[in-house]
């Protein structure tokens, strides 16, 4: 972590354009159902205001596809920010239009303006030069604190940095330190846990982790592709037939690198993909026809806990079963509970569904770090360049 941060910039009296990740879930009445991302942005917001800046916030919400859509307005976010700060956060009804200019032109120190959803303009995701320039013209300093979109080269995450002095906020700093330290200088044994439905979405991550971890525990739907690659019967379980050769290569690489790569030894199978389906626990190498794997079994939970008991660093991405259905969230929840009780071990949750599962289990405060960016954390683990971070200059 050698990037310029808000601490390195004189903010007094300056207009600061800050990109946050306020892509929060809303219910059908437009109420925020999870404030985690807003709360995660507050340390940087408070710091900027305490240092005498005039703060202009921007974010996306949902996927409005470049069109104004009231369903994706940031109005609920403005309301919640006002409550968090104890003062009014004014919402512009556009991004770079008359309302945005009017509200940002006559700001006093400590004022906060929130621009409307940046994805209401198609040029945001195109990283359009003119749109980036216009957005940058509202401010004198740019701060990116949206780790969840740091893997996207959009106008508000990368484009504006070409026209303003740029820094990262505390959330991005925290993410880079937590993920970076665990990957580049882990206390060992270093255990990786990978779940999720598809091998194809995690190829780069598996490949990268095989260079770093001592043990790799596999769960979720991707396990069945590895089984079939070894000639096991997988019944009607999820499988990417076109990735069987790749699965064999990854197993061979693990052996070559002397990484202990473990697959589930038993599986909870169901007749149908639904909560109230008939279930049984079977050996993972003999899933019967007409049945599909939906969670790791009790023997696998015990096996994985034995590996976690020895760990000094654990990095987890992806649920180990169909965690959206309580009946098949047992494996994910039991592993989360076990990790929460580990002492003298750094536990990193790599965003996305695994973060949602840990939050749902009420164990978030027991983990060392929960990433706010699923896609961004995956790409970081893979070693890819994240445009929203690469655009921030290194410290001199």
What do these coordinates show?
The chain has two domains: 170 residues, Rossmann fold, CATH 3.40.50.1260; 197 residues, 3-Layer(aba) Sandwich (Rossmann fold). α1 crosses α2. A six-stranded parallel beta sheet has the order 3-4-2-1-5-6, with helices on both faces. Strands 10-8-7-15-16-17 form a six-stranded parallel beta sheet, sandwiched between helices. Strands 12-11-14 form a three-stranded antiparallel beta sheet. β15, α10 and β16 form a beta-alpha-beta unit. The protein has 396 residues and is an alpha/beta fold. The chain contains 13 helices and 17 strands. The model has no long low-confidence stretch (mean pLDDT 94). 50% of the residues are buried.
Q: How would you describe this structure in keywords?
A:
single chain; 396 residues; alpha/beta; Rossmann fold; six-stranded parallel β-sheet; 33% helix; elongated
